[in-house]
Amino acid sequence: GEPVFYKHSSSTWSHLTFDTTDYYDSSIGRTITCEAPISAADAASAEKFDVTVKGKGKFVFANTSNGNIFSGGLIVQDSATVEVKPNAKPGKGAITLGAGTTLALTAESREFTPLANTLNLPTEGTATLRIDGKRLRHGEHEIASVVTGESENVKLDGKSSALAGRKATLRVEDGKLYLTIKPDGTMIIVR
User: Fold this and answer.
1) pLDDT class for 191, splitting at 50, 70, 90?
2) Is 11 exposed, middle or buried (0-12, 13-18, 19+ CB in 10 A)?
3) What are the angstrom distances between the C-alpha of 136 and each of 35, 44, 179?
């Protein structure tokens, strides 16, 4: 549809919520695509400007500009999916995932570039991580360098296209989130 521009002059306005549940049928999720940065009007309040995505649908950050897609934090609630396209750069704020939510990231090469954001995993229940894009090499990949939460609070979407059907596991260690991909097939070592 047509672009929608949000503007608010009050310095106390520090939050914006997108509901991905269909307005007319609460059992249906819808997709909202964001093609422009979401940020506060002035630099002083930019880092405090949180964006919340909730509902049954998907919110796609498809920003094509060089700026960050949000200036403050990103909070994902309910069963919403947030998808970050390759040309979209998350902001400096933390990404907070609620139980039952999905964060979909894209691998642009065989090596994964870690998120610059703090990734807050749910305190109860699990969130899902999906990695699409180019087939990642086997071995260990750092997904996020600052993580709050435990390994049991995050699971991997088995349909992640970057895994190409290979077995993979997620683990949190020393405040970082790692993805380990097992090699294909059987290795025969000839001595």
Assistant:
1) low
2) exposed
3) 27, 39, 10
